[in-house]
Amino acid sequence: MRTSRRVVLALLAVLLLVGAAVAVVRFEAVDRIRERVAPEPSPGCIADDPTSSGCVTPATLAAYEAVTARFAGGLVESTCWSEHAWNPSSDHPEGRACDFFPTRYGTFATGDDLTEGWAIAQYLRDEAAELDVRYVIWQGRIWYRGAFFADADGGWGRPYDGGGVYDAEDATGGHYDHVHVSIRR
């Protein structure tokens, strides 16, 4: 009788543990969906942009400062706020995006510049949660934080087609001369 009672209690304990694990996984999935569908609102473009006369969100400023501190010697230029009148869906006018140029504007990165660009892009990916990264574009690839689809071609995002606004074959339009990061808030 005692053995069967122990077996029943052990089975109940296992069921409780499995149930708790399923609940945690489900809540994580729900949180990831909520982040993509209805993220917390941005506090707005309230911080001075160090790259222009515009403004950025506090999270964008923090990401900018983190990247420029880490890669200062390898950056030719950085820009954040911009009107981007040709692209009304851009995050730049909302102060939620920055571009980091490891090479000159309009040139395809090669050699050390290409390596530096990949290091910046990978850093933004690795620190995506801490820096509140929404997505990164570099070398004709786009990577989304928390994407539900698997990364293609060796784990770095999927091909970037320019979103119907940019020429993806162009050095700037395809993001071959700069790493673009969009911040969630």
From TrEMBL:
InterPro entries: ARB_07466-like_C. It holds the Pfam family VldE. Residues 53-164 form the ARB-07466-like C-terminal domain. This is ARB-07466-like C-terminal domain-containing protein. It comes from Pseudonocardia oroxyli.
